[in-house]
Design a protein that fits this description.
- The protein is an alpha/beta fold.
- It has a single domain, classed as P-loop containing nucleotide triphosphate hydrolases (Rossmann fold, 3-Layer(aba) Sandwich).
- It contains eight helices and five strands, in the order βαβααβααβααβα.
- The chain has a five-stranded parallel sheet, sandwiched between helices.
- Helix 2 packs antiparallel against helix 3 (about 65-90), helix 3 (about 65-90) runs antiparallel to helix 4 (about 100-110) and helix 4 crosses helix 7.
- The chain is globular, with a radius of gyration of 17 Å.
- It starts with a strand and ends in a 5-residue tail after the last helix.
């Protein structure tokens, strides 16, 4: 195979994405793959500046469409500057959140509509689709419990109980709607989640004949 892979992690706040991303990075590095990690919003100089605007608690009056377009703008820069060049060089790209987060947070959580958000982001990613999407699923109550341990909250995290309930409902909806998503029970312990991810990944790599 002459191109790299794009692996994305999705899930509500508190689902343990960061932990599983780190475990997967370590696994792939040990296997000899060259790994590029990035996150959304962010991942480039420009995208990180956009991230600060999106998450700044002073921007409480941000219009939902403005928010959606800022996410898409950050993503467009990340795709063109980091993800596509890395994949062209045959590298494994792991991205903490991607288009499905916008579908959930803005399409469902902000009630802008799934199709509208998909349309905006189709333009932003310019035809790029993840090769693997890992969706880490937890209950709203468990996510709330985990987030309660966090000291500071950004603008989205401060968006209120209804918004976050809609986000959790949104992840349930898209997890059942899109057949290219690998749904994983994030209530399991970290090692079992990691083992499940590796099992799915290895099946994909063999199918694509992707070897070092």
């Amino acid at each position: 195979m002459n191109r790299g892979l794009l692996i994305t992690f999705e899930g509500p706040d508190g689902s343990g994405k960061s932990t599983q991303v780190e475990l997967l990075k370590e696994y792939l590095n040990n296997k000899g793959y060259e790994v590029v990690f990035t996150r959304e919003p962010g991942g480039t100089f420009i995208s990180e500046k956009i991230r600060k605007i999106i998450l700044d608690n002073e921007n409480i009056n941000m219009n939902p469409m403005c928010e959606a377009l800022l996410y898409a703008a950050s993503r467009a820069q990340l795709v063109s500057e980091v993800i596509k060049p890395a994949m062209k060089a045959g590298k494994m790209v792991i991205c903490d959140r991607f288009v499905h987060s916008s579908i959930v947070y803005q399409g469902i959580g902000r009630n802008l509509g799934i199709e509208r958000i998909k349309s905006i982001n189709d333009a932003a990613v310019d035809g790029l689709e993840p090769d693997l999407i890992f969706m880490l699923n937890i209950s709203y109550e468990e996510g709330l419990k985990r987030k309660a341990l966090q000291k500071e909250f950004d603008r989205l995290e401060n968006s209120g109980d209804k918004f976050h309930k809609d986000v959790f409902r949104g992840y349930e909806i898209i997890g059942k709607t899109y057949d290219n998503i690998s749904n994983i029970d994030a209530s399991m312990d970290e090692e079992h989640i990691h083992e499940e991810i590796i099992k799915i990944l290895e099946t994909k790599l063999k199918r694509l004949n992707f070897i070092v």
